[in-house]
Design goal:
The chain is mainly α. The chain has seven helices and no strands. The longest helix is centred in the first third of the chain and has 53 residues. The two termini are 31 Å apart.
């Protein structure tokens, strides 16, 4: 039974109850008593349904926050362990000095950006329809993180596919500088999101 029908029935019975209590002498007691019993039963069912729905929504929000926090923390841990920031900076320094490089191969060149995103953040991407439960600020921050990461991923795939190998040093310099900036913004957003989500999960 959904909350809408119960709500409508409860509203109708509330009108009946008002009539019963305002003019009890106009109704036979044997009729009034069952009506009031039915009314209170349905009102109780409606209240329970609403509380149950609220509890389920809150629990869903808590579990989703915990899972996304863990996934972002895992991504950040990998980035730190592999020292991607220093690696990107070293590439940029080499290019800025005028030396050519082979563009990095950091992702599977056979995967599309969407496939790569799903492999990197499977829990987040499976719950995109429900991230609004996390609240406006966190949802917007998470959406920005995913958008920037997707932009970074598109170029990383093109690097891995060799599409930039014959670009000029200047073109490579600008591309690496841009994507290192995107990566650093993603790290900042992850560092901001993780404690907020962990607090939400408690």
């Amino acid at each position: 039974m959904t909350t809408e029908p119960i709500s409508q029935i409860a509203e109708n019975l509330a009108r009946i109850a008002e009539h019963i209590t305002s003019a009890p002498d106009q109704l036979i007691p044997t009729i009034a008593a069952p009506l009031l019993t039915a009314l209170f039963g349905l009102l109780a069912a409606y209240a329970f349904s609403r509380l149950s729905h609220h509890h389920q929504k809150r629990e869903r929000r808590r579990l989703m926050a915990a899972a996304i926090a863990a996934e972002l923390d895992g991504w950040h841990t990998i980035c730190v362990a592999r020292d991607y920031d220093a690696y990107g900076q070293s590439l940029l320094d080499t290019l800025t000095a005028g030396s050519d490089i082979v563009m990095p191969r950091l992702v599977d060149a056979r995967l599309s950006p969407i496939q790569t995103a799903n492999a990197t953040f499977p829990l987040i991407n499976r719950n995109l329809d429900d991230i609004g439960l996390l609240g406006g600020d966190v949802t917007c921050e998470l959406a920005r993180f995913l958008s920037l990461h997707q932009g970074l991923t598109v170029d990383l795939i093109s690097y891995a596919q060799g599409k930039w190998d014959h670009a000029s040093v200047l073109q490579k310099t600008e591309s690496i500088r841009e994507n290192l900036g995107l990566f650093r913004q993603c790290v900042q957003l992850a560092n901001s999101l993780i404690p907020k989500l962990q607090a939400m999960a408690k």
